[in-house]
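FAQ
Q: What does a multi-component entry look like?
A: The components come first, one per line:
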Amino acid sequence: MSGVAAQLLNGLQYGLLLFLISSGLTLIFGVMGVINLAHGSLFMIGAYIAFVVSGGTGSLWLALPAAVVGGLALGAVLERGLFRRFYHREHLDQVLLTFALILLFEEGRSVLLGNDFHSVPVPAALDVAVPMVGDFSYSAYRLAVLGACLAIAGAMFLAIERTRIGSAIRAAAEKPEMVDLLGLDARRIHMVVFAVGTALAMLAGALAAPLHSVYPNMGHGFLIICFVVVVVGGVGSIAGAFWGALLIGIVDTLSKAYLPFASGLAVYVLMAVVLLWRPTGLFARS
Amino acid sequence: MLTVAGRTGSIVLGCAALAVASLPLFASPYHLELVSTAVVFAMFALSLQLLVGVTGLVSLGHAAFFGVGAYAIHLMGAHGPSISVLITLPAAVLMSGLAALAVGALALRTRNFFFLMTTLAFGQMLFFVFHDTPLGGGADGVFVTRPTFSLFGLEWVVSRQDRPAVMLFVNLGVLVAMYLGLAGLLRTMFGRALLGIRANEHRMRSMGFHTYWLQLGAFTLAGALAGVAGHMWGMTQAFVSPELLAWHRSAEALLMILLGGLGALHGPILGAFAWVGLGEIAQLITERQRLVEGLVILAVVLGLRHGLAGIRVPSLRRAMPQAEPATRAEEVSP
Amino acid sequence: MNTPAMEAIGLTRRFGGLVAVNDVNLALHVGELHAVIGPNGAGKSTLTNLLSGELRPSAGRLLLHGAEVGDWPSWRFARAGVGRSFQQTNVLKPMTVRENVRLAAQARITPLRRYLQVVTGEHAPTEAAEAALTRVGLGALTGRTAGTLSHGQLRQLEIAMALAAGPTVLLLDEPLAGMGPEESERLAGLLKELAADHAVMLIEHDMDVVFAVADRVTVMVDGQVLEQGAPAAIRGSAAVRDAYLGHAA
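Then the predicted structure of the entire assembly, as tokens:
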């Protein structure tokens, strides 16, 4: 019983992490029409920032703001320097641009930090098991990640519902031609969306580092799972990414725990069923 | 729009094929195997051109069908006594074609980026099938016995010494056949309809074409042809691994197409040779091969818009309007 | 009168809160040219999109030769003999004029094996395609790339594409827009000629053309039918003059 509860919590926490990555992916796609294959590499960079900063200072706490600030800066630079030229190019060009970025990011990581696996220690204060119901206890760090992701998700929903630029972003994701109608500077919105999306992916990487350890090409698996999230959840919507991520996180975790022979396959079967049933995604507004 | 090489172009391509075929006269076995690899990649990229350049579908899962074709040799039980290529090749076509039919039937319910993501995800699923289940024979890959050239008990035994040259001839023959077959396909009603879908899918539908079935036909055929390429890979290398299905191979094939030129049927062949050559040169200069590759892709995406096939001597250029990028089907406005 | 080739009964289409086409009744008969006029935004193009399956009706019925077709996808309409042209030019730009029309003619070919038949780039045009091109006056431009045509020539190409498939119902959305006066007059003559053995619906802004060729006129305003009748009656209607012809003047 407590085993199932732990797996459910693991799934929830994994799903929330997936939400941080896929919300950026889906917003960048929804607003700018760009598919960013290098989004998984951004996650990888965030994880390596956690490894370097917590290794250097002994504290993961400093790594989190470093990942966020670094992500905002990197996102803004990438948007200005490269992506801006590709919004109206063919998909093939966008795919190859971002594929080239993956190669360059991975090679840069290899040059700077080598190709080894590294584990990142959980902060000492959270390296305990929190007693839950009865004799069931659960990792404090995982609970903290869960809480942090929920808080970020809540903040994102609030920002999108309540602020001017948030509503412009939502409008742009649903109907790109709306941005001009609202009289907002499209270029500014693009840069904000790209920078925030990048920061979220890198923050997710930093949060995930103690749980998944850091290793070369670690972003690939997360990227592809996030594609599944976006396809299952639905087009360009934050809510779709949220519910899709939770569903995929839980299904993936439970299937790996209880259906070892189908290990990686369950989420793809789920995606196939969704495509048959509702090709626009489960949570898309029709 | 995608064009097939005219008379001059065909002569040039024919001479290039002859040049490759004459390599065994002077090249080393290592170089023969390298060129064989390029020829197999050319088949693979050419099969993807049927989707990208002809039908306008950008798939990121094409390597899965290449891998299924290669694994067909393993799945046919080629560990003990070897089996004739006349059995393994059709088996590869059948298996990869069926896999493509299943993936395509689902993925074609989506469009554009979602098609891209869906094909990538299903490709990854097939990767897991061969990586994690007993079907594939191990995550690190598995040696296979080479299919033999035999028919009704008669076998043409190829010595180890002759093998690189023979495999090069066979691969080159398959590539030429595939190219001519696709060039022929583009002259049929089916081929013209696929080109029409790339030009304007929405209009094709409103003219009465059931575009889904046409696209599914193209997707299945492209998958089967990728399976042929994969089979030839497995036969040349006598080794198959899950890595053959990995998505970065799909991206590489897209790159070969872009490198060679999206607007010409033979573009991917040029691109495959360029890509293999580039990898070889990069390896000589530096250990950081991916750095060179990444920078070259950036340069191509930022600079060389029409690929190698777009570089032409002006006087040879046929009096023909410039190929335009595919126009996106316009939404119906209320 | 006999069964209409196409009939809309209470046809309605909403976009969110906006009702673009509201309770429209319309019958198209073979042998009749039915003009639909109205100010911009009256719902004429939405109506065309409903009648050709590009859009699904929100309410109401749509009959093709007496059979319910409201839930058909657009390709079935085309195969069942409904040809249309688009207001915003919508052709296969990188292909030649001939290829555009030939594909339109090919679309209704059903036996699958014929799809493997060779149609060489420029040398084997189908007769239907060639005839349609000659009819609309593009016979001399068949080898040109569609993307390089002038606006008026593209309108002619649209009509040829609609004709090539041998339709019984023709829905033409502003087919004469952007044409020179000479071409325009010639094509107006062609429309009149086509009406003899097709059911033609024509959306057109030029009132002189409409009153010269139409057998029946429907006036739409704000998604609704304001008036329907013979051209002479429409010309005389005070309501129409106020609501629409007044705007134009």
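Q: Is there any commentary attached?
A: Sometimes. For this entry: The radius of gyration of chain B is 20 Å.
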